[in-house]
């Protein structure tokens, strides 16, 4: 028996390369919520013809609420907004992929090709912020899927949400890996003047080859650094997110990413260790088998070392950064790099005392 582990593939669900060109996931396995499992099977009737390339499908979703609440003790916000379900950026490592299983779709290729918009998001947000008894606190925009993914160019739902938040003078923290965010500098700069906004830009790698393979439809790393530069120049506070840190793949770039971002104007820095909940362990393992078969075993071994012997541990306080010697090494490297580069140790706190419900059209003005 060979001592070298053979690359493992997701049996029956790995799609032909010609079909998924420009996509991140290599397979389209059924979600964990499905009662049946399906496999691709060549019965010979196709005559060896190439499968057509996957096309992006976009459907509207009439959401009933738009602000999602959480009580997680290890994150800095208790409410968030996601204008879209699914994400065309196609980042193979995205921890939100398993959410697609809740709507009967695959966390694999479906997640990046079958997208849903929330066209009523701005109207719902106006209603929820206007509710009697609402108390403002920082809203995180784009926690599960990127609010500035490619379809935002035409749908503009994120911009509509920002217009509502600006009208209410409500604080918001944006997370994105797209330079499309600079389109909204006109809104963001005014909100920043009132200490109502900050933007976190994800820079996973500086290597364009690696970036194209693991986040195929996200902007080039240099464009993200340019977005940091332009946002900072406009007076908008920016955090760089070196996330996720993937053992033996991009972990050697931590210091370089933080240095480039600091030079571009980033005022804060943060990182997250690779997370592999639910179906993501098989999806990332399959991707490694195709693109980095010689590293697959080592990458997953280091992940297990940082996750108590498992591929994922959802324990609060450790799920973002892991535990054990490898996780401690990453944590120390980030801390030392931040100190050397002059990143502040405290995070910027946004204002909540300016919040006010604006008058609705047709409302009678008060005398005093």
Question: Which descriptors would you attach to this protein?
Answer:
368 residues; alpha/beta; TIM Barrel; 7-stranded mixed β-sheet; 11 helices; globular
Explain how this protein is built:
Helix 2 (121-129) packs parallel to helix 4, helix 7 packs parallel to helix 8 (254-264) and helix 8 runs parallel beside helix 11. With 368 residues, the protein is an alpha/beta fold. Strands 2-3-6-7-8-9-10 form a seven-stranded mixed sheet. The chain has helices spanning 109-113, 121-129, 152-155, 157-168, 185-193, 208-214, 221-233, 254-264, 280-291, 296-306, 325-341; strands at residues 57-60, 68-69, 79-81, 84-85, 114-117, 139-141, 172-176, 197-202, 238-245, 268-273. Helix 8 (254-264) links the parallel strand 9 and strand 10 (268-273).
Task: Quickly describe the structure.
This protein is α/β, with parallel strands linked by helices. 30% of the residues lie in helices and 12% in strands. Helix 8 links the parallel strand 9 and strand 10.
Unreliable stretches covering 5 or more consecutive residues: none
State the name of the first-level CATH class of the domain at 57-276. Alpha Beta
What is the CATH homology-level superfamily of the domain at 57-276? Aldolase class I
**What integer is the average pLDDT?**
91
Strand line-up in the sheet with most strands: 2-3-6-7-8-9-10
What oligomeric assembly is this protein in? single chain
Broad structural category: alpha/beta
- The level of helicity is 25-40%
Tell me the span between the first and last alpha carbons: 85 Å
Largest sheet: 7 strands, mixed
């Amino acid at each position: 028996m060979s001592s070298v582990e053979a690359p493992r593939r997701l049996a029956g669900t790995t799609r032909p390369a010609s079909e998924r060109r420009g996509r991140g996931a290599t397979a389209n396995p059924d979600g964990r919520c499905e009662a049946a499992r399906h496999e691709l099977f060549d019965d010979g009737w196709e005559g060896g013809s190439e499968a057509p390339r996957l096309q992006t499908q976009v459907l509207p979703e009439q959401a009933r609420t738009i602000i999602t609440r959480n009580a997680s003790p290890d994150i800095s916000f208790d409410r968030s907004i996601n204008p879209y379900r699914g994400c065309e950026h196609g980042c193979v490592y995205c921890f939100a992929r398993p959410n697609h299983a809740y709507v009967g779709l695959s966390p694999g290729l479906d997640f990046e090709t079958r997208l849903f918009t929330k066209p009523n998001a701005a109207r719902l947000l106006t209603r929820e912020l206007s509710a009697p008894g609402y108390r403002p606190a920082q809203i995180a925009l784009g926690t599960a899927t990127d609010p500035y993914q490619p379809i935002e160019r035409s749908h503009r739902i994120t911009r509509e949400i920002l217009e509502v938040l600006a009208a209410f003078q409500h604080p918001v923290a944006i997370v994105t890996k797209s330079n499309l965010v600079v389109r909204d500098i006109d809104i963001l700069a005014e909100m920043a003047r009132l200490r109502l906004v900050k933007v976190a830009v994800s820079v996973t790698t500086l290597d364009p080859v690696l970036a194209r393979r693991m986040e195929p439809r996200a902007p080039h790393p240099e464009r993200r650094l340019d977005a940091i530069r332009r946002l900072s120049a406009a007076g908008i506070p920016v955090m760089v997110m070196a996330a996720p840190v993937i053992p033996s793949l991009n972990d050697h770039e931590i210091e370089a990413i933080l240095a480039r971002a600091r030079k571009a104007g980033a005022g804060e820095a943060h990182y997250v260790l690779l997370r592999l909940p639910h179906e993501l362990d098989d999806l990332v393992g399959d991707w490694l088998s195709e693109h980095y078969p010689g590293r697959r075993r080592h990458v997953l071994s280091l992940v297990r070392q940082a996750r108590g012997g498992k591929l994922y541990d959802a324990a609060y306080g450790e799920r973002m950064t892991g535990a054990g010697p490898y996780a401690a090494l990453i944590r120390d490297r980030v801390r030392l790099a931040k100190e050397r580069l002059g990143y502040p140790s405290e995070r910027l706190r946004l204002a909540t005392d300016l919040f006010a419900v604006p008058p609705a059209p047709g409302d009678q003005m008060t005398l005093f």
